[in-house]
Amino acid sequence: MRLSTVGASALAAMSVMGGAHAQDISIVTGSEAGVYFVVGNTVADIVNSHSTDLNVTSSTSGGSIANIESLRVGEADFGVAQSDWQFHAINGSARFEGNGFDDLRAVFSVHGEPFTLLARADSGIETFDDLRGKRVNLGNPGSGQRGTAEVLLDAYGWAATDFALAAELTGDEQGPALCAGELDAIFFVAGHPNNSIHEGTAFCDSQLVPVQGPEVAALIAANPFYTDAIVPRGYYASGNQIDTPSFGVRATFVTSATQPDDVVYEIVRTVFENFDAFRYAHPAFELLDPQSMATDGLSAPLHPGAARYYREQGWISES
Which residues are paired to 109 by β-bridges? Predict the structure, then answer.
């Protein structure tokens, strides 16, 4: 349970200054099948191993949008969110229209996340256009996966009613459902390799499907948080012999403006001073560049505690 703002601020100042009691800090992530779960657990493990001032716990959640809402209402201290939903939350657009989160603050970005489409080999799905009339998992409400899927469907002029089934399964549930023959295709916005996609390729005959075309190109051109992306070849048992083109976002680590500067500084300092432990926690992290993580994919203002560390390293300017 999170402390009140006044209590948290006082205790943070005391603990970081060497007080006797460590402050409890919570991180919300995503499903156990996703890389967000690894991000949160790895940050918690590193900080708990190298700092006596903070006691960090990480938990599963509904995903990006749910995590941002948890920060807004004070149910969590930090969270992981797609860069597009960070943008929309701070700008009051898309799902956050009329309900922006002005106090959202960026801490650092993490791995790239291609929009990933996996289809059963017997489904007849070779392109995104082939999905019409099929049984598809759009993702659970509150997840970035679901939000981005809805944005893409809107770009195509489609709705959930264009599918024979528009399921709302979590990342943990969708791979087994695909292999059980309950679905023809699943979406996932995730770093790779990913457990959900692994389950869907290792236990049934399936293939990764390109997500490209004029609709996708228009989305990339109109939105600074989208980029061309690929699902790299060789990660999965089947249907992954060549790079699969798509578009994507970045995973970002976020907090709120109410989080004390010293707490954010301590987490950022500890993670980056023990960066090898972070880098080797998952293959999606292996090519991460610490300096780029301080700027890339961040639409919300940097939290002052994070900015302080980045200025000390010369990664951002003093202004």
Answer: 252
Residue matched to tokens 């991460």: 288
Can you list the alpha helix ranges (DSSP code H) found in 160-316? 171-179, 195-202, 214-222, 261-273, 275-279, 290-293, 304-313
Distances (CA, A) of 277 to 21, 57, 124, 264: 26, 17, 43, 19
Q: pTM (2 decimals)?
A: 0.81
Q: Map out the domains of the chain with their CATH numbers.
A: 5-112+250-313 (3.40.190.10), 113-248 (3.40.190.10)
pLDDT tens-place string over residues 169-183: 998 899 999 999 999
C-alpha to C-alpha distance for 197 and 186, rounded to whole angstroms: 9
pLDDT digit string, tens, across residues 209-232: 999 999 999 999 999 899 899 998
SS3 44: helix
DSSP classification of residue 192: S
Q: What is the mean pLDDT of the chain?
A: 90
